[in-house]
Amino acid sequence: MQDGMKMQDTETIRIPNTATWSPVALTDVIFAAPLASRILLGATLPGRILQAAAAGAYAGAALGDWMSRRGVRRIDFLATYGADVKHLEEMPESLRREEIDRYARELMAIHEPETRKRAVLASVVNERLTSYIARITGQRVETSSSVREITLSRFLLPFAVGSCDILSGDVAVFRSTGVFEAHIICHEFCHRKGYLKELEAQALSYLALSQSRDPRLRQAALAERVYRNLRVLDGDDPERYEELLAQTPISGSVLDDFRRLRPAGRRNGAISGAMRDLYDARMKMTGQNGLSDYDRGFTNFLYTRERAMAASAT
Questions:
Q1: Are 37 and 45 in contact (CB under 8 A)?
Q2: To pair with 306 at 20 to 30 A between CA atoms, which of 117, 131, 151, 314?
Q3: What is the CA 159 to chain-centroid distance, rounded?
Q4: In this structure, is residue 5 part of a structural domain?
Q5: What mean pLDDT do residues 14-33 have?
């Protein structure tokens, strides 16, 4: 089984993502304007006027994106990869350990420090993802490559490193993540292109980046695969994660990146834990398996896909 074949004639669909070009996230203005007006001016009318203007701009941008997306042909994951969110085989623990060692060694062998500014990297990642999807569907779904650093979602989702507003396509990455950054940006861009399920965004990001000729994109995919296997094995225990990480050949700045993503001794506080539970419930209500799709689901997807590819080759 192959991920798809190059199409001779490729259609182009452009999603405007107008809201992503606003100096600040329109959703932030909608929610924060009345409060800021009361604090600064002692009145809510200016805030309400600003809130209404932002809401109108947001609604117009979301409607324009929705209209453009109607012609998008989405990838059929089960037909293309032999796996989707509801069709997964469980990877044996022994194979997870083998994968961690194999891909960690490959990661260290090709590692190059990512020196590109985030805006440049985002543009490269967006083009790579667009080209990968077009190879399968015959459509170039062109979207904004804009990435914010600050939005209110950073405080609403304290456990996350990035977010995407699925209506406006507004993407934010909250902090520098080193070797993981390209994959995190690519994951959020998948949502921007209409792939709303987290497992699908994880899988598309990995497959697009891992097949790139750019080693700095491939290393991000490898790092994500290693990290997610470690997360499955650590049983949500930061100390266990550190023990497992110490058994890998990962070193230097890459090791620092892995540690920053899951610091030893940091456990979920009451607010963070409650938000995780709410997010997990929301995912399940939308036909997903919950937060486990980020790690167990993602790695099981790759395992199932690769088994299907091996079977079709015999």
A1: yes
A2: 131
A3: 14
A4: no
A5: 76
